[in-house]
Amino acid sequence: MAADIEYDRYDRIRPIRWTGTALELLDQRQLPFTVEYLSCSSSDDVAAAIHALAVRGAPAIGIAAAWGAVLAARDVDAGDGATAAAEIESALQRLNAARPTAVNLAWALARMRRALAGAGSDWREVLEREARAIETEDLAANRRMGEMGASLIAAGSGVLTHCNTGSLATAGFGTALGVIRAGVAQGRIDKVFAGETRPWMQGSRLTVWELQQDGIDATLIADAAASHLMKSGQVDWVVVGADRICANGDVANKIGTYQLAITARHHGKKFMVAAPSSTVDMDTASGDLIEIEERDPGELLGVSGSRTVAEGIQAWNPVFDVTPAELIDAIVTEKGIVERPDAERMKAVFGA
Ligand code: MRU
């Protein structure tokens, strides 16, 4: 199946570029009208970029943090990895604190720590190699998941996606959007709908732009139109990504995912979560233990920087929610597909 997918056509955007001395991030705050890379020359620059959503999406923030660790070590003078690790620990903690919900951030930093701990005098090369490996493994996982997820979708299907889970959110190709790319390339998906994903508008600013780069037609809907769309019969699958998948199969993802899962079940539509195994957190038993990021209510009080809400109005802005495992038909990872996830089926694929 992989041979069917022309990756040159379907995988061209790269949100993260390592120059050898700096990390360049495609500044997602400025898309779709300005395509500009933000240069980070320190780990604190990277932490600030992650917090401000210049780089976003669970896998992408893990990869950026890994390169941030390389930057943190740039001026460190140490004879071995363990000494270097101690020197950069506070910088790693600042990277880790940039956003709380996506486990990929802590996962990538834990990998960087482990690589350093075992390294000798060549620790600098080891650290850089590990960051590169995290990035290339993510791309390979996405391409694999794309095929695996698409294989569940029958020819002639319509899909709805949420947030942005594409190349912009990963090392490339995307998770849920990778499934959609593969499904379109293989002729399984005829119709793609994307929700605008208020309040940050990842769907309208990023997802439909990404698909346009590939020549894939996508139809934007208001988030509030999802139930009506499902009732109209134009959608067979809802396909989304994840920020953290718990040991019992509960999934944290962009706010609004939970209500999509509820309405999909009500209308007899299938619900798929596609994510690399770096998003699986077998140490968190269930979704109620996940810290849900709450961002500045100001994100809700206006559109594109212009205030649309009367002064003095309060807003609450949780930016993720948890979809319970029982509403999910399939969790697709590069390690395997967990259908109708629960603790036992998760353990069978991901171990204890
Ligand atoms: O706040 P964001 O834009 O970082 O949220 C992103 C999402 O919720 C994505 O769906 C998730 O990270 C998966 S991206 C492959």
TrEMBL record:
Pfam families: IF-2B. The active site is at D243 (proton donor). Substrate binds at R56, G57, A58, R99, Q202, N253, K254. It catalyses: 5-deoxy-alpha-D-ribose 1-phosphate = 5-deoxy-D-ribulose 1-phosphate; 5-(methylsulfanyl)-alpha-D-ribose 1-phosphate = 5-(methylsulfanyl)-D-ribulose 1-phosphate. The keyword Isomerase applies. SUPFAM superfamilies: NagB/RpiA/CoA transferase-like. GO terms for molecular function: S-methyl-5-thioribose-1-phosphate isomerase activity. GO terms for biological process: L-methionine salvage from methylthioadenosine. It is an enzyme of class 5 (isomerase). Keywords: Amino-acid biosynthesis, Isomerase, Methionine biosynthesis. Catalyzes the interconversion of methylthioribose-1-phosphate (MTR-1-P) into methylthioribulose-1-phosphate (MTRu-1-P). Also catalyzes the interconversion of 5-deoxyribose 1-phosphate and 5-deoxyribulose 1-phosphate. Part of a bifunctional DHAP-shunt salvage pathway for SAM by-products. Belongs to the EIF-2B alpha/beta/delta subunits family. MtnA subfamily. This is Methylthioribose-1-phosphate isomerase. It comes from Luteimonas cucumeris.
